[in-house]
Specification:
CATH architecture: Sandwich
Shape: globular
Number of domains: 1
Strand content: 35-45%
Radius of gyration: 15 Å
Length: about 110
């Protein structure tokens, strides 16, 4: 049952987002979210991902943005973070990476214990 219902990587609602990531983004892991609240945009020469982050995250959870130019090799170096709003129970954060004249760049958010 851990792999399908209660584990960190389990996705009981089938929305493509595992339980731990749903926790960090303050989402209900039993309700399929049509949109997870992650927004991406270009800002000058940067790729910016805006997301909600729970303020209940314990010190045992690591949460970061990674980027890639080929979807094969992922790096965390160079990702800059900023809190843009603070609310009760969560904050709105931005993860930003310079595109450095790359023709394409990808970003993902990951969480683990």
């Amino acid at each position: 049952m851990e792999a399908s219902v209660w584990g960190d990587l389990a996705d009981p609602d089938g929305d493509g987002c595992g339980n731990l990531l749903e926790f960090v983004m303050q989402r209900d892991p039993n309700v399929a979210d049509a949109q997870l609240g992650l927004r991406c945009r270009l800002d000058g020469g940067d790729l910016v991902a805006t997301y909600r982050e729970t303020t209940a995250t314990s010190s045992g959870v690591t949460w970061l943005g990674e980027w890639s130019v080929d979807l094969g090799f992922w790096m965390e170096a160079g990702v800059r973070y900023e809190t843009v709003e603070t609310h009760s129970g969560y904050r709105v954060r931005e993860a930003r990476i310079s595109m450095n004249r790359e023709p394409q760049i990808f970003m993902r958010l990951t969480a683990w214990r």
